[in-house]
Amino acid sequence: MAVPHRLEAPRRPRSAKAAPEPAPAPDLAEKALAVHRLLCPVYGCPIPYFHALDPVSELVSSLLSHRTRNADSGRAFKALRARYPDWATLIAAPTAEVEATIAGVTWPELKAPRIQAVLTAVMERAGGLDLGFLAGMEVAAARAWLEAIPGIGPKTSAAVLSFSVLRMPALPVDSHHHRVAQRLGLIGPRVDVGPSHAILRAQLPADWSAQDLYDNHEILMLHGQRVCHHRNPACGRCVLAEICPSARLA
């Protein structure tokens, strides 16, 4: 089975023992908490989880979602579930058939063989298509285990741990979250989405729960979708304007 180019940004090779997260500057840690406090009342923390999938299903869902609208990736996931009775059947299916099934997502010609390759790697490394054992690992070690599989980057590993029924305290960062963090100055202008995961997580309290971190991701993502747009951000109605250097320049 041919493996396509990576869909997530390249990352440094990782061993089973993850490197420690960088220590944040105290002012940035304070700012990250201020952002959280200001946005939570706007978007209604605690925010209900939108998925209750097993971790392997969440893995498939996350791989489908890269650079794809939620509605389109959701339809593709449902189409896979309808066509294949289990993920082992999907692995054995003709790749062209899988590609046709997920035709509504971005880059189905890359995602179909990638999903099959990732699921095959999970089966080989875990002895089956069950990632429930990750619940017994520290978050850093669980993420390192997942990211050792080609095609799984920081966003996907965090999504599997956070969004699935594992409900582990990992912080995913999507493009909206990343954009808001950059405009606020929480990360530098040249920090890509992948490396931003460790930086943004380190700015938040180490003892935060899975719900706390899920809320943080969701409120920054929603703020990016509804206010801090890619083009023409609505700075005039932004509750973060007083602490946002980008707003002061707008």
TrEMBL record:
Domain of life of the native organism:
Bacteria
Which InterPro entries does the UniProt record give? DNA_glycosylase, Endonuclease3_FeS-loop_motif, Endouclease-III_FeS-bd_BS, HhH-GPD_domain, HhH_base_excis_C
Stretches assigned to the HhH-GPD domain:
64-226
Please give the start and end residues of each transmembrane region: none
Q: Where do the segments described as Disordered lie?
A: 1-24
Concerning CDD domains, the annotation shows:
ENDO3c
GO process annotations (BP): base-excision repair
Where do Basic and acidic residues bias regions lie? 1-11
Cofactors, names only: [4Fe-4S] cluster
Record keyword Nuclease present: no
Q: Does the keyword DNA repair apply?
A: yes
Recorded hits in PANTHER family, A to Z, give: A/G-SPECIFIC ADENINE GLYCOSYLASE/ENDONUCLEASE III, DNA REPAIR GLYCOSYLASE MJ1434-RELATED
Say which family it is in: Belongs to the Nth/MutY family.
Name the record gives this protein = Ultraviolet N-glycosylase/AP lyase
Q: Which organism is it from?
A: Methylobacterium gregans
Gene symbol of the encoding locus: pdg
